[in-house]
Each structure stands twice: as structure tokens, then as C-alpha cells.
């Protein structure tokens, strides 16, 4: 089967970026591990694709391949229809400018010895986006306004350590914007921020999406945040290196079709004392996450899955197949019986 | 500096039955930050914890939650100093003045009366000792229990937190997953049957399904053993899930407290309201969220009056003049619902409770 065939449909539009059957294998002391295993994803201009999963599921590894920071062991990453690893240097450099990576830790992208102004003007001048220091400074101020660091004069002369966590993350987004990216890869970019600051940073990112048409690969372990930021986009759920469910975000959250997604949604407490009483662990068979070095055969969720059927689930790896319109899951039982088998457990009494 | 509350009027968190287990009055913690300079990380906190109660302490980072917990158990770092009055009422009727304890009495208080599970489960262990050694050391330091008694007690508690004693007793801390380590810590903290357990961010940094298992374990052990709990969390959902009562902390003070349903459905402090409006729920439609502008103030430069006034959309000139005391909510009284805001009568959450017929907190 060609990986391209299963790439989530782009609904008529040409996706800006496609990951087709990409894998990343790391050689570790415990043997080779498939941190990312045959993943297909595509991102359309101005759209949000959320990649959610628990820590270690392979989100960052997938993101680094999408950003061209790591070369896949297998599979292909296309940008604007061209395989990025067959591009000439000039095209690859254009690609790298078009796809910007924003880390969880803003310190990783902000040089501690540079002021915000220096951080922003350096790439502007180096890549000839503007000519001359004055124009660069003006553009830097404009970028700070875009990320709500206003008035810009208050921030241009600051060093990263003089900013609060939220301000630092805004500055690193401003830096990502210097080269007019078409896609921003935001890897847990708001995870270290307090709730209230997180919402205002997300609102700012939402404006970049809506006003500048920037597409997002939005990575988070927090499904509530994926829901909030990616409501009008798509969500892919990763488990142990594979995508186990994919679909429109509201469907993933409110009508999941994979037992793992169902378990996650059911487990997360709600900020509401009555509502949270309906939450629980359901009938998960085990709490332990298998090691990537010793993946269970067949569906790697089978040792924990409440729908497990011996002979069916522990044989071959299930493929991601459409369960409902636009929504696909990689589960043998759901593929056979439909998503109704996932009806939520009655709340524990 | 403007004083916070007048110590003459005791305003404690009410709600439980009988005598409070832990009673805190005008509690303050200072940190020395340089030669002759200090910051006040906790300011004038009054609080009662009743037997069997579960109290959540919520607020953004830097609000003083951890400092408060450490201060209660006399575990502050060397540069921290607690003052005020903390009374622990033992089941046998003895009243203990916690801030006056020292030596053996203090060690005894710390494990037998109250215990703490610290944030970051790894640092709480000695990496070269197996779990068995941790259990034995803890018990031997405080009791005359025999080897067999210790083994039995440890096994009983490990099973209670859903761990197989045979599997974990001979493990080194690094051989356990984060969730297992956290459960071992909960079991260890309960070895000497404390009446109060303080947990600092008990699920932070754990995976979703592991977090849920810790939450379920806490529900279970509390039901079985009946201790009281103070847990510290920046995660409001965890408070909704685990607390009977909630106290919101801001810049070192408790600015609102009440039953969990009052706090989530009828918050009356603009800060509690702001926190609630900023948390996205999981189920349901796209939530309408709002953020609180700015961040908590620096302790070294607290604003005059209500410490929240620079971020508050209800603020008026009066709010800059006076730091309001914690007073009972009078226009819509809840069970022990108290708020420190001049304009609390104007503060309402325009989001209905999903289940109004349940009434207010019981
Ligand atoms: N450079 C590397 N060498 C070896 N293993 C790695 C490397 N980078 C990541 N891994 C492993 O790959 C898996 C996926 O990691 P990661 O992509 O960081 O997951 P996530 O971002 O979802 O937490 C983890 O088990 C991690 O330990
Ligand atoms: N050892 C210390 N010395 C000086 N200040 C401290 C120390 N520990 C904490 N603080 C300060 O006390 C305040 C409260 O901190 P903390 O209790 O950790 O808050 P929280 O747990 O709510 O995040 C913060 O402003 C913090 O910087
Ligand atoms: S007292 Fe004033 S500033 Fe403080 S929370 Fe109430 S309205 Fe806001
Ligand atoms: Mg990651
Ligand atoms: Mg803390």
C-alpha cells in the first residue's frame, strides 16, 4: 500500500505540506525504536492541524521531520509539492524559512545575550527581508505589535531574562514571524504558561492564523487546549509512534472512534464539579505504557484496551481506516463493528 | 505598606463539623532575599481544616501555595520564616502549637499528625535506596515497629494505592514509572496514619491516564482511611474533582474560599472568576474563554490596596486605597463562602451550573 493513498484527504485543496509514510528509527541501547512509525499528515494553508498524544508518543520527533530538522528514516516530506530532501539548497532554504518551529521553552529560540531587537533584526537583515538597520528596527517593532508586546519600545531593548514567561513566548513567536512563515510548528508552546496567560497567547496565535493565514501544526499533550485552538481544524491522536485517530477536532473530542482517544477524553477532569463526576478510568485493562523497544504485537494499545479481542487485536497492526465521514481510526474492532461499541461507560456510582 | 487584615476579627474557613483539626490564624511567611531585605510570600492567612475535609488551594504560580504548605509543616528553607498561630487538635483532645514545636515533637508532628507529598516525586527519594529501605527507615525513625509489622503495613498501603508490594518493594526509585513513584510516595506518607495529608501538585507532569489513576487512588484512600487533605494545584479541574472546599490564593493571601460548588458556579472574587473563565473544559462545544490580563505582582513591589487591582476589570479608586478583608458573602450566602473584594456584589459568573437542582454545596 502506498502511504500517499492514506494521507488524510485535503478536500480538494493542495496541501502545503504532506508527511507521507514517515518513520523515524532511533538506535538506542535497548535496540532500535520506532519513535514515529509510518505517519501520514497534511497541512493546508491557514489551517490548524493538532497533534496530540501523551509524552513519548512521538510528537516532537514528527514535528522535527516536518520542520526539516531531522530526515525521516523512511517516507517523504513534501512542501509545496516537492520532496524537501531532494530540493536544491536554495529551495531547501526557502522551505526552512517558510516553516518555523516554536519550542516549548522559549529560551531555546531566544539567545540570552541578545536583546529582543537584535533577535528580531538579525534574521531580517541576514535574509534581506528588509534593507538597513532602520527598516529592520521598524519591522521588529511591527512584529512585536503582532504578538501583543506593546508598546514595542518597552520590549525591544529587553533581554530574554527580563521578560515574563508569557512575554518570552510571544517574543519567540515574533522571531518565528520574521521570515513570513506559511506554517508555524508550535510544539507545546503554551504548556509552561499559567492558565490565564496561556489563553491570551493562544488568542494571539489564533489571530496570526486568521489575519496572516499562517497554517499551524499545533502540538500538545493537553486535549482541552487542542480543542480550544484547533476547533475549526483537524486533530491527529498519536500513540507509541503511530496515528491512531484522525478527524475534525470537534468529532475527535465529542465523538471519538478509537478506544484510546475515548479513554483519554473520559479520564481528563473537568473544571466543573458536577461534570467531572462523569469522568473516570473506564475499563482500561492496564495503566502501563509499553516500551517502544518492546512494542506489543498487533495493535500496540491491545494490552490496555477495553475492546481487546484475542486473535484479532494481537495479530497485525490495524490500519487507519475511515469510520465516519472524514474521521478515521486504527482499531480492528471499531473497523468491524463501528464506533457504537465505544459508547461511554456509565459513570461510576 | 497597607495592612491586610485586622487580626482582631477571626475570619476562618467554616464548613466542617465540630472542632477544626487544623486551625491557622494570621499566618505569615517571610523569605529573606538579601541583607536586611525580605519578601512576604504568605500574608495574614486564616483557615480551618475540619476532620475528613479535602481542601484545594488554587492560584497561578508564585501565589504562595507551596510556601503555605511548607510553612504549615515547618519545612521552609532556611531563609524562610513563619509567624502567626497554627493549632493542631489531636484526636485525643491535645492542642498542639505547631509553630512552637521543636526537636522530637516536631518530627513526631510531621509524620504522625501531618505529612506532605512534595512536588516532583523523584527528588523525594534517596536514589540509592530501594523502596523497602525507604519504608523501613521512615517507620523506624518514628515507631518501635518490628520488621514484620513494617512489612505488613507497607504492603497494606501499597495495595491500597494499587501497587503490587512484591513488585515494587525491591525496586530502586528510578526503576518505577512516574505514576508508580507518586503512588509509592502517597503510600509512604500514610505509613504513620497522619490525620492531615498535604499534597503539592500531586499530578503535575504525569500523563493523562496516570493522572486519572492518581486521582482515583486519592478518592479511594481518603474514603478508606478518612484523613483530611490539603492539596495544592494550579489545575482548577483537579480542584473540581477532588475538593470539598476551595481556597483561591493571590499574592500570598486567600482571596476567596467556599464549598466547591459555590466556588465553581458562583465565584465572587474577580480573580477566581478569571481563573474559571480561562480553563477550557474537555467535553462540549467550543468554550468562550477569557484571560486575565498581566500576571501576579512581584512580592517586592506589591500594588497598594487590593493586590489584584491592576488586573481587575471591576477595580475602582477604592480598590487602590484599601486591601479588602475576607468577609462572608452576604447577598447569596453559601456554606462558609467568603470573599475579599470590595465589589463582590457585582461579580457573577454568567454561566449556569449544569445541574442547578443540586443546590449549593452540602
Ligand atoms: N534522539 C533520540 N534518540 C533516541 N531516542 C529518542 C530521541 N529523540 C526521541 N527519542 C525517543 O522517541 C520517543 C518519542 O519522543 P518524542 O518525539 O520526544 O515524543 P513526544 O514529543 O510525544 O513526547 C521517546 O521514547 C523518546 O525517548
Ligand atoms: N526560598 C525562597 N526565597 C525567596 N523567595 C521565595 C523562595 N521560595 C519561594 N519564594 C517566592 O515566594 C513566592 C511564592 O512562591 P511559591 O510558594 O512557590 O508559590 P506557588 O507554589 O503558588 O507557585 C514567589 O514569589 C516565590 O518567588
Ligand atoms: S477589590 Fe477591587 S480590584 Fe480587588 S478584586 Fe475586587 S474589584 Fe477587583
Ligand atoms: Mg515533545
Ligand atoms: Mg508551588
From TrEMBL, chain A:
InterPro entries: AAA+_ATPase, ABC_transp_ATP-bind, ABC_transporter-like_ATP-bd, ABC_transporter-like_CS, Oligopep_ABC_C, P-loop_NTPase. GO terms for molecular function: ATP binding; ATP hydrolysis activity. Keywords: ATP-binding, Nucleotide-binding, Transport. GO terms for biological process: peptide transport; transmembrane transport. The keyword Protein biosynthesis does not apply. SMART domains: AAA (SM00382). Residues 17-265 form the ABC transporter domain. Belongs to the ABC transporter superfamily. This is Peptide/nickel transport system ATP-binding protein.
UniProtKB/TrEMBL annotation, chain B:
SMART domains: AAA (SM00382). It is a peripheral membrane protein. It is found in: Cell membrane. Residues 24-276 form the ABC transporter domain. PROSITE patterns: ABC_TRANSPORTER_1, ABC_TRANSPORTER_2. The keyword Cell inner membrane applies. GO terms for molecular function: ATP binding; ATP hydrolysis activity. Keywords: ATP-binding, Cell inner membrane, Cell membrane, Membrane, Nucleotide-binding, Translocase, Transport. GO terms for biological process: peptide transport. It holds the Pfam family ABC_tran. InterPro entries: AAA+_ATPase, ABC_Ni/Peptide_Import, ABC_transporter-like_ATP-bd, ABC_transporter-like_CS, Oligopep_ABC_C, P-loop_NTPase. Its main location: membrane. One of its GO terms (cellular component) is plasma membrane. Belongs to the ABC transporter superfamily. This is Peptide/nickel transport system ATP-binding protein. It comes from Kribbella antiqua.
